[in-house]
Amino acid sequence: MPKRYVIIGLVLVLCLVILACERMAPPISSEEFIDLASIPASYGSLVSVSTIPAYPEWVQLWFQDSVGTIRVVRVDFTDFRMMQNVRTITRN
Q1: Whole-structure pTM value
Q2: Domains contained in the chain, number
Q3: How far is the CA of 75 from the CAs of 12, 27, 56, in angstroms?
Q4: I want to staple 91 with a disulfide (CB 3.0 to 4.6 A). Which of 32, 63, 68, 71 is the partner?
């Protein structure tokens, strides 16, 4: 009977450990970065800044130009780099 309780206890501990583990975000390769100083003025005015829960050191900078096009730039402020691929939302 005690052996049964030990096995049940170990299974419960294993379940708690698995539930306590946080999912890791996939790594980002260094080829995807460019220097933060290369944000073009043509992106327009900075209208908002938001965070990315999966990457606490990252923020998203939201720009809007004179015709209403919105660009989202993802920036890593631990080493002041930004992702090369900028998301663009055009307005009709």
Answers
A1: 0.60
A2: 1
A3: 41, 15, 11
A4: 68
Task: Give the distance from CA 10 to its chain's centroid.
Answer: 35
3-state helix, strand, coil in the chain (%, to 5): 30, 35, 35
- The answer to whether position 33 is within a domain reads yes
How does pLDDT run across 1-59, given as a tens digit for each residue?
677 777 777 777 776 666 666 555 555 554 555 565 678 888 899 899 998 788 888 88
Residues 62, 52 contacting (CB under 8 angstroms): no
CA atoms within 13 A on the CB side of 87: 8
Full domain range(s) for residue 39: 27-89
Residue 3 lies in a domain: no
